[in-house]
Each structure stands twice: as structure tokens, then as C-alpha cells.
């Protein structure tokens, strides 16, 4: 009698239908492997929220099964949730050189020590329970990015991580196409691949092309050069340093995360800093403008980042002036377009020359476009496919691409976070789901800000609030103090005295009504106040501030 | 002895260093002409604000000098502030056919009647005091857009309004290049021109090209077609209707502003609706999918607009399903990218096919790019130039363009709202400024929400609030009720009871301290409570809710 084949379960917990908080669980019998552990940034409606992490209810429930966490690369949407997750599930973490360096930094900031972190390098194979994981070198907008080939008793899973194909990479290390070809030949059961640029035709340009642009810019100007880029884009920083070196300029590194990454990358050998090229920001005025390059944070227009503060005259050490040439070696992440525009305008107003993506080739993407994705699909030749790392439109387009290449529709799973895809050698299907979703982090609180709190913040943000306080005698039930009205974020009180006086009358009348009907139930008193005031205020102002009646008894 | 020449003053009050709230005053001796009267949409930080209008302090101060308001076209950023401004300065308003139709609608909505509105047509010349204004037909993304040639004793001003050059316009009426040539030959003192696309090389494509795309789409599908576009883009709507007519489809118009504009434009003859093509939304299910086109609002992902509600299953009459083809015949206005993306993803998830700008030629801009701007500069040959209608980077680039064409730098004024440019036949210079800025409109309140209210809303939005109420005996100064704590938008109270209990202790201790030092001054009591609680809460939660201590005496 044939035994029922054991199923491999693939359970994405983040990263689908979004760009952010990537995390996937692979489960075979009673062993779980976790791939990536990222955060995402709050949506505009998530007022006051700092970051968003995946809901790991499923992992906590099965914590004794978890063998470890393997990381594809060091971007925040792949490692940012580690400090929170490791507090609940303390398992070994495996990552490449720079990836682990950034993880160590992050855990240090959270004052977390004595965790099991293991560095691996491309070509290494690690065994975690029944899973055998090989790390494969890829190209991305951060060094040391890896794809993972995960061997299981059911078959091999190839997870690309985030990748592009760069035929002329900065560090000379092209994505290991030979390895993908080899693995594809041996047979791959399932591929999970990066869908971010699935809508874009053609191929991503090589990182080297930006270096060419830098050379042209540096060669042709005597101005002080300021380059804003993603701190994690070490290869971009490398090219800035090489252009600076070639044209005899010193480098100032500006911005906390930029300084951190440059240090870590330099120590680990992921960045080759030419000797004596870096000077301290305080030494800058010892040099002419044409001898200086400042590499800085702020490419996304983040108000607190270095470049934004320079642009708004808020930076203690750097003043933007005519004679500055600012390069945004970046692209605005969706949602940040206006912030970036604001900084660009401020820089122009200060007389700087500003170069950005729409004016010159100063940025290339780190994600594969359609031709690169097609190559990956053809090399790997997987039986099943799950598009990952994208909004729905990206996943859908990527699924369509796979279909155009000949994959049967039923072998392609365009799913949501929490879906369980069950695979055996013979079949693949969606077999259910686990709890999934997002946990909001605000200050020290993890998960304690939910819909109600957000809803209240939204209400307060829109129309402010009115607090009505009245003290009632315990014996007689009559008002012995108040009603006092305090408002914030509603109207400018000094100009609205009449409104406040009338509002108090409205409250008194509502309470008198209740008194006449001998109502003493506080909840009823409060709703009477709230209803009366709500109608009054809307009629007078067409605004709906939050109304908080407070009754005290004395 | 020569008399001092009277100066012409040009005073922009809105539209510079922003895209929005366009308004300019022209002043000669004791006469003022106002050009356009627009609103702008609130920035993200302007919580709860509905719209923003120009600060017209200067106009109110000089109201008896104002001869009238002339309008270039019917977009909100050119007419949207009229209901508010006319309440303060009731002067005649002049505009073209559709422009005035939209203004009438708007004033009706604000229940404003008996205002002096006068329709003019291209070629008409009106005399307002010393100003003689000729309306000149242009192409833009709304019909009946005009440039204005304003004759003054000092010389002619040419204001382009918003424009592009369309050699194959939908209504057959190309921008009146002959008139610009003629006026240029006669001599133009000053040109003020649209800078929106000054950074873009080449030319804007003709509106007709979108019609070609529509034909291709309509010809090749049997699906129900839904087209989202700007309600004001009547020529786009015209092309949708013509493609629908050609391929035997009925039209449903959806969304309040879309229905309004289609009605007004149809009545005025700016839109030619094929007979019997429009059906009511309730008749839709009498037809097969391939016989239907829905023209709808929601191209900017506005949550309350029709398409967004269809996408989130919130629309009472239309459900998005497989078999729908949705076209976004638009481009996301900066700031709206994520909103649009969200709707696109929702539509895809419902199984619809979605086409948008990055995938097909379904939209063209309404603003001139560099080649068109150069043509305008060369035809008009002005002596002086003020770039308008753009953020600083756009104005700067446009100024640079004028310089590249040979205009002396000192004749180009890249200025801010409120700046006075003084012109005579012999010189042009910046001669000072007037009050200018923005007025925030929230509900019925105009200008009463200022920095303090916004700052409070921001604080409440970030970390919520805590109200502490305590009643003190008038005689003894001791607490006779409370402290009670009410929080909103801070923590989920049911899970934070310990925190609330400790917080009350902190408050009691602070009050006891004050009691011991015999402090009875309320302001001191309140700051003691606030300081103690602030430190406590930050230590426990790393959050800073607004703290509102309320003391009652009984």
C-alpha cells in the first residue's frame, strides 16, 4: 500500500500584495525554515506608526519547529523585523557578509546580544533539519545579495531573493548564472521570484552606467558636489568614491545611516575606500569647493535626513549655496514623490544646480525587468511558480509572463500572505491558510495600536477635539462645577469665543433636559451631551471634532 | 520737465512656486485687474483642511480699485477660489463659454446669486478701466481655454494661461498661432507663461493620439469598458464617446462631477454627444458587456470617487468583475501615486483588465513642453518675461529657456507670490512686495485654522491624547474627585490597564507635591501634572501623547 506522500508547505507571511515585510515559511513534517524577516513602512493612514512587521502568530504557535532564519540580503524589507521576531522566536540566523553585518548593527541598537548569527558565503550549503540551503550570488542594489536553493525531500525550491542581472557589476561578481543553469538542469520543483519590475519591458541598465554619468559630471564641474543616495547602495557609493578619487576630490560622509553603512561595509571589505579620501565634515572648509564630494542621506526627501536639513538651512555643518551641485542618485519610492520635489525646489531656491533621474542617468533599478525575468525562468525551468515581492499588479504580470513562457496556468500560484501552497512530487495546490497580516509598531509598543486607536487618531487629525467637563453633586445630581470646554485642533479659540459660549449653553441645556427626565445614568448623560454638541458644531462650522464628555461626581 | 512715467505693477498672488491657486493682479494708477482666482489642494501636513485659497489681503485693502476678474479657463486651480473671493470683493467676472458655465455651477453650489458674470469668446476685446483685454483661443486639457493679451498704457502683457500646442485638436480649433504672431509683431512688453512642463524636452502629443488608442482598445475587446478620466477633460470624453459610437456601445456617465461637467458641456455645445448614446446607470444591465462604456470619476484614486468605490465593492450600482476592462486615461498628479496604485491593484484583484499610462498611450499632457514654449517665446518676442504656473524648479528651468533663446537675464523675473514687478517702457524691476500666502478652508471656516490648530492636529495624529480630570475643593484645595484619565488614540485601553493605574498614581503624586508646597495656582498644578505624566509615559511607551490636564473647582 503506497504511503501518502509528505507535503511541503510554502507559507508566505509577508511580501505579497505589497512591497515590504518579506517573510516566508517552508514547512515539512515538523520542521520549519523561515526565509527573510522584513519590515514595511507605514501607509499614510497609519498615523503615528513607526514601522509595520508581519503577523507571526503562526510561527509563535509552532516555534519549536523552527530551525532557523535564512536571509537573502540586508535591505530593511528583508531584515527589519528581526529585532522584534527574535524576541519571540530565538533561532539561529544565517546571512551573507554585509547582510549579517547590518543585522548585527541593528540588534546592537536594540540592545540585543547573545544571538546565534552565522555568516555564510555564496557556494556554502547549510543543513537545517531536513532543509539543505545553498546560497547563490546575485546582483541587487546592495552587495552580498543571494538567491537560495532549498533542497527538500519533495524537491528543490529556488527563491531568487531580490535580483537583477548585471553583466558589468561593480565588484566584478556577476550573478551566478552558471549555478542557476546547473540547478535548473538538475530539476527545480518551485521557483519564487522577484516581481517588482515585472511590468517593465527590456532589461535594467548596469550599475556601471551610473559610474559613467558620475565621471561626466565630476569631470565637467568645479562646483562642490553633493550626492544623495540610498545608504545601502554600497556599489553606488563605491562609484562615487572612485569618481572622486579620479578627479582629486575628498569625500565627506553625511547622515547617520550613511556613516554606519560606510563603516560596516568598509570593515567587511564590501566597500573599497581609497586611502585618505575620507575627511571629517569639520575639515571641509580647508578645501576648495572643487575638491569636495559629500555623500549624504536624504535621497527620499525624508524631512530629518541630512540633505533635507541642508536644504532647509537646518543642518549645523553644511549650508547649501550657489556653487553646489546636488545629485539625486536615486528614484523616489512611490509615496515620496512630493517630499523629494520639495527638497529639489528648496535646493534650486538656494542657487544650487540639481540633477535627478528625469534629467540624467544617475540611477538604475536593482530589480529585474521582463527580459531578465524570462532568462531566470528559462534557466531554472521550475515546475511550479509563485511570483513574490510585489503589489498585486506586479504579481499578476509576472504570473502572466510565466504563462507566456509556456508554464501551465494551474502550476502558477498568485496568492496572498498567509496562503498555504502544498507541493508534492505529483501535485501542487492551495490547501488553506494561516493567520497573517500586519503588526503596527509605535514607540515601544508592538501590536497595541490597532484599528480603534488609528481610527481615533484619524478623527483627531481631521477635526481636532472638544473636551467637556462637568462635575455633578453625588447627592443632588446637580451641576456643581462646569461645564468647562477645552478644545484642541478644532478652532483657534481666541477667535471663537462666541462659539464656545454657545457650546456651553448647548451642553447645559442637554444636561437640564436629562435632569428633568430624571436621567442620572452617566452613559446617557454623555451621549446627550455628545449628540447635542455634535449637531450644533456641525451646523455652525461643518466640522466634526471628537467630542469627549467627562463627568465627575463630588 | 519730463513727467515720471506711470508704472505698471504686476503682482502674482498665487501660482508661483506651486501648482495651484493661480491669481495675478495688474495695477495701473488706481485701477486693478485680476487674472484667475484658483484654489489649491491641501498638503499632507494640512490635516483636516479641505482647500487652500490665496491670501487676498492686498485686494481687500484696495477693493474699490478692482475693475474685474478675467479667467483663462475652468480648472479648479484657476476658478476654485471664486466663491470665497467674490464674497469679499464683488466684481464682474469674465470668462469663456465653458469656463463661465463651470463658474455658474460652482457659485450655485455655494448658494451665491446675482453676481455679474459675463461670457466672452476668443477674439472679443473687453475694456475694464484702462485695461483692454483680448481673449485668444489656446489648446489645453479643457475646452475654451484662453490666453489673454492685456493692453495697458505702458505696453501689452501676454498671459498664456495654461496651454499646449495641438496641431490636430479634437474640436478642430487649433491654438491661435496667427494671433500670437500678430501680437508679437506689434510688440509685447511682458509675457507670463505656463512653466508646468518646462523640464520636459520635445513636444506634447496631440489629444488625437489618445483617440487612436481608444479606437484600438475598443476595436479589440468584447469586455465592458470603464474609462476613468478627469471630469474637466471634455475633449477626452468626446473621444471616448466617439469610439463608443463607432463600436456600437452605449455610454453610462458615473460620478457627480463627471455628470455635472458632461451636462454643462453638452448644454453649452462644448461636447457633442451622439444621439441616444447615453443611458442611465440603471439601464445598464439591459445590455451585454460589449455594448457598454462607463465614463467615470476616480482617475486619481480619490477614495470617495466612483471608480474607487467600484474597486472596493462600495458602489451601489456597479460591481467590478472579470470581463471588465478599465482604462485610466490620466496621469497621477504628484502625491496621488499610491492612491492610484491601490485602486489599480484592487481592480486587478477583482479580475479586471487594467490599462494605464505606463502600459499604453492613454493620456497626453495639457501643458506645453520645451519646443512648444520656445515657439511661443519666439512668436510673442516679449521684452520682459515672468515664468508662472510651476514649482520653483519649473520656473527656473523656464527662465533658463528664455535665456537660452537670447533674452537678457535682467529682463527675466523669477519671483515669488506677493512680489511686485514694476514695468515702464524703459525699465523693469522688482520693487517690493505685498502680503501674500495661503488661507486654509476647513468646513465653513475660512482662515481660522492656522499653525497652532494644525500643530495640535499633528500632535494628536501622531500619538493621541490623554485627558486628566480632577476636581478640587474650593475651600480646602484637596482633591474631591478624580484624577480620572481618558485617553484616545494613544493605547488600546483594555490592554493597558496597568499603565493607566500607574499614570493615576503619577498624577496624584504630582498633585500631592504641589499640595505640600502649598501651590494652588492652577497653571502650576497643570504643568506639574503634564511634566510628570509626560516623562512617565515616554519612559514606558516611547510615545508622547498630548496631555490635557483639566482642573475643576467645586
Could you characterize the architecture of this molecule?
The structure is a homodimer of 554-residue chains. Chain A is 31% helix and 24% strand. The first copy, chain A, has 15 helices and 25 strands. Chain A folds into 3 domains: 8-202 and 365-443, 4-Layer Sandwich (Metallo-beta-lactamase, Chain A); 208-359, Rossmann fold (3-Layer(aba) Sandwich); 451-553, Roll (Ubiquitin-like (UB roll)). Chain A is an alpha/beta fold. Chain A is globular. Chain A starts with 7 loop residues before the first strand and ends with a strand. In chain A, the strands form 5 sheets. Chain A has an 8-stranded mixed beta sheet. The first copy, chain A, has helices at 57-61, 76-79, 82-88, 97-109, 177-186, 207-219, 234-246, 256-268, 306-311, 337-349, 370-380, 392-404, 451-463, 497-516, 522-541, and strands at 8-14, 23-28, 31-35, 51-54, 66-70, 93-95, 117-119, 125-128, 131-137, 146-151, 156-159, 190-194, 224-228, 250-254, 292-296, 324-328, 353-355, 384-388, 419-423, 428-433, 438-442, 445-446, 465-472, 479-488, 546-553. Chains A and B meet through helix 10, helix 12, helix 13, strand 23 and strand 24 of A and helix 10, helix 12, helix 13, strand 23 and strand 24 of B. Chains A, B: One of its GO terms (molecular function) is RNA endonuclease activity. Chains A, B: Its cofactor is Zn(2+); Ca(2+). Chains A, B: An RNase that has 5'-3' exonuclease and possibly endonuclease activity. Involved in maturation of rRNA and in some organisms also mRNA maturation and/or decay.
Amino acid at each position: 500500500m503506497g504511503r501518502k506522500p509528505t507535503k511541503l508547505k510554502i507559507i508566505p507571511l509577508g511580501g505579497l500584495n505589497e512591497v515590504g515585510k518579506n517573510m516566508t515559511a517552508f514547512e515539512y513534517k515538523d520542521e520549519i525554515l523561515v526565509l527573510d524577516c522584513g519590515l514595511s513602512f507605514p501607509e499614510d493612514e497609519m498615523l503615528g506608526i513607526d514601522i509595520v512587521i508581519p503577523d507571526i502568530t503562526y510561527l509563535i504557535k509552532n516555534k519549536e519547529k523552527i530551525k532557523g532564519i535564512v536571509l537573502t540580503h540586508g535591505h530593511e524589507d528583508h531584515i527589519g523585523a528581526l529585532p522584534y521576531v527574535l524576541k519571540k522566536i530565538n533561532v539561529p540566523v544565517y546571512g551573507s557578509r554585509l547582510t549579517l553585518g547590518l543585522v548585527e548593527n541593528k540588534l546592537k541598537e536594540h540592545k540585543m546580544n547573545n544571538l546565534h548569527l552565522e555568516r555564510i558565503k555564496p557556494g556554502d550549503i547549510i543543513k537545517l533539519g531536513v532543509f539543505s540551503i545553498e546560497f547563490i550570488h546575485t546582483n541587487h542594489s546592495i552587495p552580498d545579495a543571494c538567491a537560495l536553493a532549498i533542497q527538500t525531500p519533495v524537491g528543490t525550491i529556488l527563491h531568487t531573493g531580490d535580483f537583477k542581472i548585471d553583466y558589468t557589476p561593480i565588484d566584478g561578481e556577476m550573478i551566478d548564472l552558471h549555478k542557476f543553469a546547473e540547478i535548473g538542469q538538475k530539476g527545480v520543483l518551485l521557483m519564487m521570484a522577484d516581481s517588482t519590475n515585472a511590468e517593465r519591458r527590456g532589461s535594467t541598465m548596469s550599475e556601471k552606467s551610473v559610474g559613467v554619468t558620475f565621471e561626466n559630471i565630476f569631470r565637467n564641474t568645479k562646483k562642490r558636489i553633493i550626492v544623495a543616495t540610498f545608504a545601502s547602495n554600497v556599489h553606488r557609493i563605491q562609484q562615487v568614491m572612485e569618481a572622486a578619487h579620479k578627479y582629486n576630490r575628498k569625500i565627506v560622509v553625511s547622515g547617520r545611516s550613511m556613516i554606519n553603512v560606510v563603516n560596516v561595509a568598509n570593515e567587511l571589505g564590501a566597500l573599497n575606500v581609497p586611502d585618505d579620501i575620507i575627511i571629517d565634515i569639520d575639515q571641509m572648509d580647508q578645501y576648495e569647493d572643487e575638491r569636495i564630494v559629500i555623500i549624504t542621506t536624504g535621497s527620499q526627501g525624508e524631512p530629518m535626513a541630512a540633505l533635507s536639513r541642508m536644504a532647509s538651512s537646518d543642518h549645523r555643518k553644511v549650508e547649501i549655496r550657489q556653487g553646489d551641485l546636488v545629485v539625486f542618485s536615486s528614484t523616489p519610492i512611490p509615496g515620496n514623490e512630493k517630499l523629494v520635489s520639495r527638497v529639489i525646489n528648496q535646493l534650486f531656491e538656494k542657487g544650487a544646480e540639481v540633477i535627478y533621474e528625469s534629467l540624467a542617468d544617475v540611477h538604475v533599478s536593482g530589480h529585474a525587468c521582463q527580459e531578465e525575468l524570462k532568462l531566470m525562468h528559462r534557466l531554472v525551468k521550475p515546475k511550479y511558480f509563485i511570483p513574490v515581492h510585489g503589489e498585486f499588479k506586479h504579481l499578476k504580470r509576472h504570473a502572466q509572463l510565466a504563462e507566456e513562457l509556456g508554464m501551465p496556468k494551474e502550476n502558477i500560484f498568485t496568492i496572498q500572505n498567509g496562503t498555504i501552497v502544498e507541493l508534492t512530487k505529483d501535485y501542487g495546490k492551495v490547501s488553506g491558510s494561516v493567520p497573517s497580516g500586519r503588526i503596527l509598531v509605535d514607540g515601544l509598543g508592538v501590536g497595541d495600536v490597532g484599528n480603534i486607536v488609528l481610527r481615533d487618531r484619524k478623527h483627531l487629525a481631521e477635526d481636532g477635539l472638544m473636551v467637556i467637563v462637568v462635575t455633578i453633586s453625588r447627592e443632588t445630581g446637580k451641576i456643581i462645577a462646569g461645564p468647562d470646554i477645552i478644545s484642541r485642533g478644532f478652532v483657534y479659540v481666541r477667535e471663537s469665543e462666541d462659539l464656545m459660549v454657545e457650546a456651553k449653553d448647548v451642553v447645559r441645556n442637554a444636561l437640564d433636559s436629562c435632569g428633568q427626565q430624571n436621567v442620572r445614568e452617566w452613559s446617557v448623560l454623555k451621549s446627550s451631551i455628545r449628540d447635542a454638541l455634535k449637531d450644533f458644531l456641525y451646523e455652525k462650522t461643518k466640522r466634526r471634532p471628537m467630542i469627549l464628555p467627562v463627568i465627575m461626581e463630588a
